């Protein structure tokens, strides 16, 4: 990983929910314009780690976070960056598609509006974001349609469009396909691969095949710790640790 | 076979209960309409009472009740909604907020006559408002606050967290996420609670008894600093305190019917707003 440019990183990160430690001394780096998959059994802390990077834990009161989280060397927590700035630069797509209960157009427009992007530029950005997320052809005839009437897969692609419309540097994806059928899933995977050239992507997934299909790097977590990280092919084909081997071969999960 | 019999019994119980409830509802409405409708007329709702309440209409009482409900809404809705937003969206869950919540729930259970007494002490005497429309409206506002807080909080709690996260993830501040995403989605639920609360307040007699309602005023209705007439109190007086009870009975039924219609219109307006809202979703 050394020769590549590191976009996003955490060093010596610890996190507690109340008294329960969920992340233990996690250090990880995500290279620029690559897709990194976070894998591991349920409850291993991969979603928790992901949500550290766009400060989603700020909402909860009983969370204690230690360690450094860096976006191109800039501290996400202690520096001059505000939480809203962090979230604008690091977009997120959630496990369950969560479009606003507004029109398709308004779903993307909202983020532009609150980030003070001038009105006359928005139309073009919205169209571009929808095209970039491969949903334009399906929705272009009726952008005023309520987003909640789209199918699950379309909703998730709309959520991706909503994220990319803000030109973030990183997109975090928290099991974006776990609620989708195989066809929608393959469309989203295709989309993720195409987004790679413009964005750094971190994706949490339970699906081993998905990790192998889309990810350049894979990070395996277990009980709040990073057990192994490396190229996806290496993690799956010649894992260095017995635990990784057992997990990727489906012996537990 | 056994299962089939139990199923029939279960079904039957539910059906009979529903039927019984509907029966009473229809019986009440039928009684009101059949006895009240004959006294309804344009004159009844557009003139003041005359001849010691035995003739004329109930216009001052209608105006009084509508204004009173309006004041109640203006007092209770903004404070109640803000309080609920704070409790549900901002407040940390600790012993203090738990005590506050428990207190609000207990307040909702306090008998309304107690509010009347409190209003008398605070607004009428303490703040020197005298028995007046304003004092009564403020008292009813206090009475309504806990209901509005509870129903609004309930409506906010039903909005899933992923909606708040969706807004935050595109760079909204917490305030923006509440204003632009949480509140619009919660409006139908909030409105239902608000209207139910106001309907109840419009029909209250006890809290306004000490704080400003009058049996008869011979001045034009609608001054904040003066006593006023109100439909529920008018009804109470006509049916129990009048010297010619038999003679004014039709007027009492007419008053009851008008009160029900006022409350119904209030509900209808909420229904309309909810409908408008759901069309845009």
Automatic annotation (TrEMBL), chain A:
CDD domains: ABC_PstB_phosphate_transporter
Gene3D superfamilies reported in the protein's UniProt record: P-loop containing nucleotide triphosphate hydrolases (3.40.50.300)
One GO MF term attached to the UniProt entry: ATP hydrolysis activity
GO BP annotations, alphabetical order: phosphate ion transmembrane transport
Pfam family, any one: ABC_tran
Domain (ABC transporter): residue spans on this chain: 6-248
Keyword Transport: yes
Sorted UniProt keywords: ATP-binding, Nucleotide-binding, Phosphate transport, Transport
GO CC term, one of those recorded: membrane
Name the record gives this protein: Phosphate ABC transporter ATP-binding protein
UniProtKB/TrEMBL annotation, chain B:
Localization terms from the record: Cell membrane
GO MF term set: phosphate transmembrane transporter activity
Predominant location: membrane
GO cellular component: plasma membrane
Name recorded for this polypeptide: Phosphate transport system permease protein PstA
Organism from which the protein derives: Mucilaginibacter psychrotolerans
UniProt keyword Transport, yes or no: yes
Family to which the UniProt record says this protein belongs: Belongs to the binding-protein-dependent transport system permease family. CysTW subfamily.
Domain ABC transmembrane type-1: 62-270
GO biological process, one term: phosphate ion transmembrane transport
TM region positions: 12-33, 58-87, 107-127, 133-150, 251-273
Superkingdom field: Bacteria
Keyword field contains Protease: no
UniProt keywords, alphabetically: Cell membrane, Membrane, Transmembrane, Transmembrane helix, Transport
Name of one Pfam family that matches: BPD_transp_1
Alphabetized PROSITE patterns for the sequence: ABC_TM1 (PS50928)
Membrane topology: Multi-pass membrane protein
């Amino acid at each position: 990983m050394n020769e590549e440019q590191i976009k996003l990183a955490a060093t010596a990160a610890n996190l507690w929910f109340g008294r329960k430690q969920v992340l233990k001394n996690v250090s990880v780096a995500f290279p620029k314009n690559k897709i990194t998959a976070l894998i591991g059994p349920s409850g291993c802390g991969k979603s928790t780690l992901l949500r550290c990077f766009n400060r989603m834990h700020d909402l909860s009161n009983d969370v204690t976070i230690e360690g450094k989280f860096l976006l191109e060397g800039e501290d996400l927590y202690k520096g001059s960056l505000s939480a809203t700035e962090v979230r604008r630069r690091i977009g997120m797509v959630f496990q369950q598609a969560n479009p606003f209960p507004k029109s398709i157009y308004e779903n993307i427009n909202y983020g532009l509006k609150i980030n003070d992007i001038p009105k006359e530029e928005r139309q073009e950005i919205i169209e571009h974001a929808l095209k970039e997320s491969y949903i334009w052809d399906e929705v272009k005839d009726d952008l005023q349609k309520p987003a909640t009437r789209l199918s699950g897969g379309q909703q998730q692609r709309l959520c991706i469009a909503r994220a990319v419309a803000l030109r973030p540097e990183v997109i975090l994806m928290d099991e974006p396909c776990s609620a989708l059928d195989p066809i929608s899933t393959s469309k989203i995977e295709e989309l993720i691969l195409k987004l790679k050239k413009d964005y750094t992507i971190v994706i949490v997934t339970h699906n081993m095949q998905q990790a192998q299909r889309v990810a350049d790097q894979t990070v395996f977590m277990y009980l709040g710790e990073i057990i192994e990280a490396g190229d996806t092919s290496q993690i799956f084909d010649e894992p260095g640790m017995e635990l990784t081997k057992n997990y990727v071969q489906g012996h537990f999960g | 076979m056994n299962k089939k019999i139990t199923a029939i019994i279960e079904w039957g119980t539910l059906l009979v209960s529903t039927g019984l409830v509907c029966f009473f509802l229809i019986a009440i409405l039928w009684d009101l309409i059949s006895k009240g409708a004959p006294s309804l007329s344009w004159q009844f709702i557009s003139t003041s009472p005359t001849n010691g309440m035995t003739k004329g209409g109930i216009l001052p009482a209608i105006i009084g009740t509508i204004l009173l409900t309006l004041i109640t809404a203006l007092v209770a809705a903004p404070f109640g909604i803000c309080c609920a937003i704070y409790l549900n969206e901002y407040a940390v869950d600790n012993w203090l907020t738990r005590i506050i919540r428990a207190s609000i729930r207990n307040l909702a259970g306090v008998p309304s006559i107690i509010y009347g007494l409190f209003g008398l002490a605070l607004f009428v005497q303490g703040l020197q408002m005298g028995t007046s429309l304003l004092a009564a409206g403020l008292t009813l506002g206090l009475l309504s606050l806990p209901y509005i807080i509870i129903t609004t909080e309930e409506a906010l709690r039903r909005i899933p967290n992923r909606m708040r996260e969706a807004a935050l993830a595109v760079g909204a501040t917490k305030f923006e996420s509440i204003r632009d995403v949480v509140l619009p989605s919660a409006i139908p639920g909030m409105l239902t609670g608000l209207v139910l609360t106001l309907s109840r307040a419009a029909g209250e007699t006890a809290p306004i008894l000490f704080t400003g309602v009058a049996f008869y005023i011979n001045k034009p209705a609608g001054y904040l600093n003066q006593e006023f007439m109100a439909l529920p109190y008018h009804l109470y007086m006509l049916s129990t305190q009048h010297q010619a009870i038999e003679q004014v009975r039709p007027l009492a039924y007419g008053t009851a019917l008008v009160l029900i219609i006022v409350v119904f219109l209030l509900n209808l307006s909420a229904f309309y707003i909810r409908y408008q809202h759901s069309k845009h979703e």
